[in-house]
């Protein structure tokens, strides 16, 4: 449950940030956060404090309540099967690029960009070994390979 809420919150924050036309880096600066912390919030891997929630709402010029108004697009199907990397991370909706909202998948030499999570996931399903880009713990984006498939948030 905790991871689901964090992921939905992060997707909502990212959706509102992108709609406001701010880059992740510029928005993090506006909030007084490190870009890596902002990335963790948007990916759902950070347990955000109440103070940080208030800061995010003020920077986005929305109510705190608006940060928790999740729609169906923000609530990925928990029964959905996704690829998992050896470190336990998985391909999920929070991995959209902070620059353009796309998902990059495929071999290093022939990566493709998809504008929707579902399209990218469908492409991954057709690969012999699913490969996608995601940030590491330092916030640097790199290519990872699937070692198994499992339910979304089945960590």
TrEMBL record:
Residues 13-67 form the HTH cro/C1-type domain. Keywords: DNA-binding, Transcription, Transcription regulation. The keyword Transcription applies. The keyword Transmembrane helix does not apply. Signal peptide: none annotated. It comes from the Bacteria. PANTHER family: HTH-TYPE TRANSCRIPTIONAL REGULATOR, HTH-TYPE TRANSCRIPTIONAL REGULATOR SUTR. This is Helix-turn-helix domain-containing protein. It comes from Candidatus Pantoea symbiotica.
């Amino acid at each position: 449950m905790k991871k689901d809420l964090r992921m939905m919150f992060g997707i909502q924050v990212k959706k509102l940030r992108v709609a406001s036309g701010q880059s992740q880096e510029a928005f993090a600066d506006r909030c007084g956060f490190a870009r890596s912390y902002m990335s963790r919030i948007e990916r759902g891997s950070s347990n955000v404090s109440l103070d940080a929630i208030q800061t995010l709402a003020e920077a986005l010029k929305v109510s705190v309540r608006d940060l928790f108004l999740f729609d169906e697009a923000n609530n990925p199907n928990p029964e959905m099967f996704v690829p998992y990397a050896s470190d336990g991370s998985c391909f999920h909706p929070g991995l959209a690029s902070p620059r353009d909202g796309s998902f990059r998948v495929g071999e290093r030499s022939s990566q493709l960009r998809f504008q929707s999570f579902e399209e990218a996931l469908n492409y991954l399903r057709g690969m012999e070994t699913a490969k996608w880009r995601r940030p590491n713990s330092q916030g640097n984006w790199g290519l990872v390979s699937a070692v198994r498939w499992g339910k979304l948030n089945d960590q």
